[in-house]
Amino acid sequence: MSRPTTESLRLLPWIGAEGKPCYLIGDGDGYVSRLADDIESVQLGMAVDLLAHTDDLLSDRSATPEQLRYVIARLAESLRDVHRVARSRGARLAVPVRAGHTE
User: Which domain holds residue 59?
Assistant: First the structure.
């Protein structure tokens, strides 16, 4: 049996045991792929909401250090999620073939 190629692996938008990445092997049409798409959409939407909240907090001169530390921690979590989504989607992009070159 042959090993799966990197093109058939999808980095999922969640982590597994001990913080290790989770991958899906498949064509992208199954239940887990749709679930991953939905979770990625939620993560990206939450990042937008968090940025708006952060903008509000930064413009509030009475924001406490605790509030700022909290929002920074949430920003770090969100950035990790968004980075994972970007890596996953980037890895699944078709690599364009340059003119005159074939594989």
Answer: 6-89
Model confidence, pTM: 0.78
Q: pLDDT per residue over 28-51, tens digit each?
A: 889 999 999 999 999 999 999 999
In a domain? residue 60? yes
Q: Is residue 78 part of a domain?
A: yes
Q: How many domains does the chain have?
A: 1
| DSSP secondary structure of 29-58 | -SHHHHHHHHHHHHHHHHHHHHHHHHHHHH
Give the pLDDT score at 80. Answer: 96
> What SS3 class is residue 21?
strand
CA–CA separation, 43 and 53 (whole Å): 15
